[in-house]
Design goal:
Blueprint (H helix, E strand, L loop, with lengths): L11 H6 L14 E4 L4 H11 L3 E4 L1 H11 L12 H31 L8 H6 L31 H9 L1 E5 L8 E7 L6 E5 L8 E5 L3 H6 L7 H8 L5 E5 H7 L15 H15 L5 H11 L12
Parallel strand pairs: 1-2
Antiparallel strand pairs: 3-4, 4-5, 6-7
Amino acid sequence: APPYPTIPTLSVRAAVSMPTNLAVSATGAGGIRRCGPSTPADLAECARWSGMERCVPSRAGRAENRFREGRPLSTTSRRVPRRSVLRYVLIALAVAIVVANVINQQSVAADDEPAPTPGSALEALAGLEVKGPGPDTGYERGLFGPAWADVDGNGCDTRNDILARDLTDLTYSTRDKACEIRTGTFDDPYTGEVISFVRGTKTSSAVQIDHVIPLMDAWRKGAQSWDAETRLRFANDPLNLLASDGSANQSKGARDASAWLPPNNAFRCTYVARQIAVKVTYDLWVTPAERDAMATVLDGCPSEPLPVAS
């Protein structure tokens, strides 16, 4: 018979006598045996008992060796494919480019934003101090002096002065009160409605005089530190007074621009500009929310001039 390569095998005696921890698998090629979990000494003993050139741990044996030594069961468990690494790098680069573009666009927009028009309400708003409101503690209407005092000494109280300024078609009292407005026509800027004013117990309230910056709101934002004379002047300053529809004035109460604006949108720019003028004159501050509300209104009329008293 032609010669065939001899495949080494274990003798019966070797197979029976080999220690159990060196149990081997089927005969391997080239005189190599695969055995169970083994230390280097076990592998040498395996080769001596089996008569093979050498013994190597089986796949299961290698896994158990790693488990005993506290190493990962797979030598590839920590490897990250190069394609994945490249993908992550490209994604990070793309995100960085997008963020850089956004920041650059914001910077360009800020640089391109025109400066406020000199003398405008928007320019004046930028100069107001911004901080939170103070408490209402201690506020009383009487701290701003008697209502509608004749502070300018013209012989007429402030209410009638403002009615005479803001109404048309006026008639006056025929009695000894020469300043007293009896009737008139009022084109209300807050609502856009036309009101026929008639003085009387039940009718006078149809047209009221609004403090553009409410007295209580002024108290929260600087007026607490004023002297009595300044408060009296503020409460009767024509710059801070407008005739208004009675119900609109009542709905406003003591709220600032962040909580109330005239229902008539066409008057909002003028209204906010007047509030800013009063705050500049009396060094009152604005809250962050109030400043933002004013700026939003003035965005639609950036050249709105700062009014003066009339």
